[in-house]
Amino acid sequence: MASLDSKIPKGPLSNKWTNHKSHINLVSPANKRLIDIIVVGTGLAGASASATLAELGYNVKSFCFQDSPRRAHSIAAQGGINAAKNYQGDGDSTYRLFYDTIKGGDYRSREANVHRLAEVSTNIIDQCVAQGVPFARDYGGLLDNRSFGGVLVSRTFYAKGQTGQQLLLGAYSAMNRQIGRGKIKMYNRHEMMDLVLVDGKARGIIARNLVTGKVERHGAHAVVVASGGYGNVFFLSTNAMGSNVSAGWKIHQKGAHFANPCFTQIHPTCIPVSGDHQSKLTLMSESLRNDGRIWVPKNIDDVKAIRDGKLSPTQLKEEDRDYYLERRYPAFGNLVPRDVASRAAKERCDAGYGVNATGEAVYLDFAAAIIRYGKEQAHVKGLDENDAVLVKKLGQGVVRSKYGNLFQMYEKIVDQNPYETPMMIYPAVHYTMGGVWVDYNLMTSIPGCYAIGEANFSDHGANRLGASALMQGLADGYFVLPYTIGDYLADDIRTGSIATHTPEFDAAEKAVVDKINLFLNSKGEHSVDYYHKKLGKIMWDKCGMSRNAEGLKEAMADIKALREDFYENVNVPGTDSEFNEQLAKAGRVADFLELGELFAKDALDRTESCGGHFREESQTPEGEAMRDDENFTFVSAWEYKGEPADAVLCKEELKYEEIEVKTRSYK
Ligand SMILES: Cc1cc2nc3c(=O)[nH]c(=O)nc-3n(C[C@H](O)[C@H](O)[C@H](O)COP(=O)(O)OP(=O)(O)OC[C@H]3O[C@@H](n4cnc5c(N)ncnc54)[C@H](O)[C@@H]3O)c2cc1C
Fold first, then answer.
1. Would you call 233 helix, strand, or coil by DSSP?
2. Is the CB of 470 under 6 A from ligand 1?
3. How far apart are CA 497 and CA 493, in angstroms?
4. Distance in Å, CA 464 to ligand 1 centroid
5. Does the Cβ of 232 fall within 6 Å of ligand 1?
6. pLDDT digits (tens, 9 = 90+) for 449-507
7. Could you tell me if 61 and 35 are in contact, meaning their C-beta atoms sit under 8 angstroms apart?
8. In ligand 1, which atom is closest to the CA atom of 66?
9. I need a labelling partner for 218 at 20 to 30 A (CA). Which of 233, 236, 247, 281 fits?
């Protein structure tokens, strides 16, 4: 078993960051002009990195498969972004954010990276405000905050329910300025198909123009992968339809270790699955748990009556409701972290208390918040606090101003008015904590190849706290990578531009073209989606919210068999010289079919429960996740060896020097 320890810097945390700051001077402004960097992906991580690298003076080529960076998955982020500003004076601090994130991740993330994240969190807000991002403000004009799960302070900055979109517009504006200056060359509708290595270093990519089908070569001194998460390996997830693992998987195949693939986040507040026809699930932002109370009926007869349409949830008396999160976790209540809330919902539904036709839904109820806010408003306005109709109207107004767009979205999808009747929610796949392994500088195990944002594994351990993905993506993009990358590029100032008419580029391009032809010539019976859907079902049933050894072994065998069938029987219509979504998707599903097996292998290997990874064999008598610190305080970084089943495990031992490792409790 190999060790990655030598790549992790030693010493006190603060020095690590200071050391890297000193590397800024290693590439002078004049020399930066001689260096080309490819950034694959222009979501929040990639757009912020592209803009900052260009601002520093590097020549940047940025790629995205959408028609504009503005359409990256990042725009889906609704709830907010964390920063340890302590604007509420509630005792927040860099250390507190660091502590919450390590604890929230169930002590499976790298201490140094998380501390750096907490340190730069406050800079992100300043940067974005300077760009004009319209964060919500309180009555006095100061930036407002709300709380997210797993924390006892209010540190989440937000822009109504559109935080990701507004942040991306800020980063995109910064990028556009550099595009205008000629420092960024933007390749929309281009998909990275492979990484090109020369003498073991990342020296470029093969990309495909998705509109014309042309396969292109692009050389650079370094390649940054910011391609997002792989939750769509489950087919149904809250991720954008195009989100995929391919860029990360291609670099894995070329030597980048893939870390903790089984660490997936299942978000507790999503609109429940309604049938077989769906291709997408919808998140109801976690911000709703600030005011919504989660419950199911206490009595099974009431559950049946609700399901049969004989009883409405609003008719159920307070004493007949089980606010199970408040009951089980009195300290955090409805604001427990996502893994805890998701498992608790599953536990109630598995016990038969699910409130919709499929038995997989719990209530998220705003009635109490509406009355609370309504009374407050009546008091402020000097109106009658005992007038129930008035109080309800005023309260609904407050809730509308906080969450109006989310309520509207729910009503459009479910056709029920959530101001009048509780929302129904159920957990769904949402985020992947696993990803490409990176060192402290965010470099993968391939020299010159970096991974940032959701594509890497670095900061969230086994469970991500709400509003911390945007923080990590923008920390990586604005404040970490642009400076740490100089450490590597300092040796490249005399290299000259990277030639692409070389045997290495020839071989990589040929492999890409051969794969495209393989798909087009297969002429099998089944669509790409047929395989994706089947893969998703295996993943959800056997690698989902709870996992056991038997199911995981079955999943590995089932996915391998499905992959073999895919290569025999897939049918990809159209040609390679036109805009062909099915062809693009075939490549992505082929990679999911490999990742899925590695995912199951990783989950099988980790016999402990931690964060989002719940092994049925490892739980406390109360049904809580039971970690095994003695045997599993490490990052599982897998080395590619062809078949996913043959991947070799490299361990990065996790050492906690600044934080005491404890059993996670939110009671
Ligand atoms: C519904 C929803 C709500 C969320 N809300 C929040 C929230 O409130 N707060 C929070 O902190 N987090 C939230 N998250 C998580 C957060 O949105 C994501 O983790 C984050 O936006 C990921 O950013 P990214 O830049 O890493 O990747 P993405 O935004 O996914 O961008 C990936 C980029 O890579 C490109 N790409 C991918 N593959 C290729 C390829 N092969 N070739 C070329 N380009 C490629 C894409 O075109 C895109 O530009 C939410 C997630 C979801 C699903």
1. helix
2. yes
3. 10
4. 14
5. no
6. 999 999 999 899 999 999 999 999 999 999 999 999 998 999 898 999 999 999 999 99
7. no
8. 47
9. 233
